[in-house]
Amino acid sequence: MFRIESDRARFRDIVRGRIREDLRKYLSTGELIGRCGEQSVSIPLPQIELPHMVFGPNSKGGGEGGEGEGGEPREAGNGNGPPGPGAGEQEGKHILEVEVDIQELAEMLGEELGLPDIQPRGVNELDAEGGRYNGVRGTGPDSLRHFRRTYRSALKRSVASGLWDPSKPRVVPIRDDFRYRARRSCDTPDSSAVVFHMMDVSGSMGREQKEIVRIKAFWIDTWLRSQYRNLKVVYIVHDAVAKVVDQHTFFHLRESGGTKISSAYELCLKQMAEKYRPEDWNIYPFHYSDGDNWSARDTELCVSMLRDEILPRVNQFCYGQVKSAHGSGQFKKDLDNALGETENLITSGISERSDIPLSIRAFLGTGR
Fold this sequence. Notes:
By secondary structure, the chain is of the alpha/beta class. It has helices at about 1-20, 25, 100-115, 145-160, 205-225, 245-250, 260-275, 295-310, 330-340, 355-365, and strands spanning about 40-45, 95-100, 125-135, 180-200, 230-240, 240-245, 280-290, 315-320, 345-350.
C-alpha cells in the first residue's frame, strides 16, 4: 500500500514538472478557460501515460476454428468482407487530463513570471470570522474531545454521588461528562479586492483580439485569487454604451458598433460609488481595447476621469491594447502622453498571443 502511494506521489511530481515546463504555452492559449472549475483546472498533457499492466504475446500460438484447409493463409479483414487496410505502424498520441488546484496553478504562474506578492492598502481591511479553539462545550465530535475537562467532570460527579473510593481510585466517564473543545469567534482583518474587467466589443475588435483578452483575464483572476481571500470580479463590456454582464457573456459575447470608452469608465465609477467603496476594497480596473475611440473629445474626457476620479481611488489601473487590423492604436499613445508618469497606471501593448506573458508581468509585477 505504501509503495503504491509512493508511486502515485512520484507520478504527480512528474506531471507537475511537465505543467511547469509547458506553462508559457498555456499562458497563450485559451483551452484552460473552458476547463476551469471553482477550485481546479483540468489540463490536457500529451505523451504521459499512467502506469498500467501490459500483457505479452501468447508463446503457444493458436487460432480460431473456421473454414479452410490446414496451412492455408488467412486474408486480412474480419472474414466477412474484402481485406481492410491492415494494421498501422505509427505511434498513437496519448492525452492525459490532470486536475490542478487553482492555488497551485497561481504559484506556478508567480514563479514563471517572477511576480511579487501584492501588498494590500492598509486601510482596506474587512472583518472576517476567525478564532481559536479555546472554549469548552458539552457536545462535539470525538476528534475535539477535551480529555482533561472530561476527566475533571467525571471525577466531580463520582465524588458528589458517593461513588468515589480512595482505595480504588477509578473514574469511568459517562456521556454527560464528555467535554469538547469549541472555537470562540473573533473578528480578524481580511483584505478584500474587486476586479473590473472592461472590454471593447465594438466592430473593430475581432474574434482573435477578444480571445486574447479572455486569456489575459483568466490568468489575472487566477493570480489575484491567490493574493486575496475575498475577491469579487465585475465584467463590463462596451461599444458606444457600457453594461455589466456575467462571466459567460463576457467570454462569449459577439457585438458590433461604435466605440465610446468613457461609457465604461463612467459605469466603473458608478459601481465603485454604489458597491465597492475605496475605503473597504482594494480596486483593480483592467481595460482592454484596440485603441480606437469615437472622438478626441471623448479621449480627453477619459484622461480627465482617470486623473481626477479613478486613479486616486484604485490600487492600480491597467490598460491593455490589442493590435487589430481595424484599430488605430491611438488611445494608448494618448494615455502615455497625458498620464505616463503616474505610478498606478500601467499600459501594455499586445501584438500577438506570444506577448501575453509579458503583458501579464507588466500588469502584476508591481506588487500593488
